[in-house]
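Field notebook, page 344. I keep forgetting to write these up properly, so this time I am using the form the group agreed on. The chain and the ligand, zinc ion, are recorded exactly as supplied. Prediction of the bound pose follows.
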Amino acid sequence: MLRLRKLINPGIDEIAPTPEMFLRQMGGPVMIFVEGQRTDRCRGLVTLLHGNEPSGLKALHAWLLTQQKPLYNLICFIPSVLAALSEPIFTHRTFVGQRDMNRCFLPPYNDEPGLLAEEILALLAEFEPECVIDMHNTSGHSPDFGVVTLQDSAHEALVALFSNRLIVTNLRLGALMETSTQHCPVVTVECGGAMDQAADEIARAGLQRYLHDEEVLQLPPGCEIDLYHHPVRLELSRDAAIAYAQHYVLGTDLTIPPDLDRYNFELVEAGTVIGWVGQDRRSAMRVRNAAGEDVFEQYFHITGNQLLTRRALKLFMITTRPEIAVSDCLLYAAMESEHEMLYT
Ligand SMILES: [Zn+2]
């Protein structure tokens, strides 16, 4: 397996001065190892699993240029370099014709992104980091949040380096975080919108703590985390015709208001309009829970041509990009809104 280029303790002359130039210099997926001030532990970092989500890469690149030593050994992976470099740069989630890299961490590993995922997992098993953070951006505007598939104080503490919102999901899609164990917690961090400067700053500050703090697996006293449990996904069929507009667009299966993402992490009341549906109404949509069941009726309903929330819901990861709405999902919804105060 030789998919990953390996950079060990890269010197300043091995790191081009901008993130874009650095990616061109790498030319493909890369693993970077940086020896720590102490070498008895290792921490893991993955970023740019999606080529259009550069905040983590920018933060890592800026940190590499400082030539600091992390407190402990660091192993990093930058997988979707080719997707990111496809013109226009940082606009392609996947490399053309390939599967979503963050849906490939489940066997069988029999295509290019699957084999790369397998290689990353093998190296993580070899280096045995005490934890792994996978840094992403959302496609639309969104505040920062974390996602975990296992919930305990170590997972919460890792997310809290970046955000105080935490989604706990039992959805299984083949994402890296699904490989998490209590022995090696793996968390997803969504730093915020891909083009938002605030997201770059959250990535930078969180990474600084992750690489230099002695303790990252224990929540600091007084830290509050907002928890969102077991969201469902509103998915559209692959051939769904959709549009973003303020009124129903003739011929579409679903028209979505272009500012729907203003509801991100908001509690919306029952009866909130999510969009307008076509003649076929329900057939282009499904609401998938972790068991893979369609639970549309529990969350939404259709009146006339309006798609409405059936009950008060917390919505998040609402995308305003039609290709992502169709190929992945339009939004996530959680039925309960929980504000838990932990360790106060
Ligand atoms: Zn992503």
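OBSERVATIONS:
- The first strand starts at residue 5 and ends at 8.
- The two ends are 48 Å apart (CA to CA).
FOLLOW-UP: compare against the apo run.
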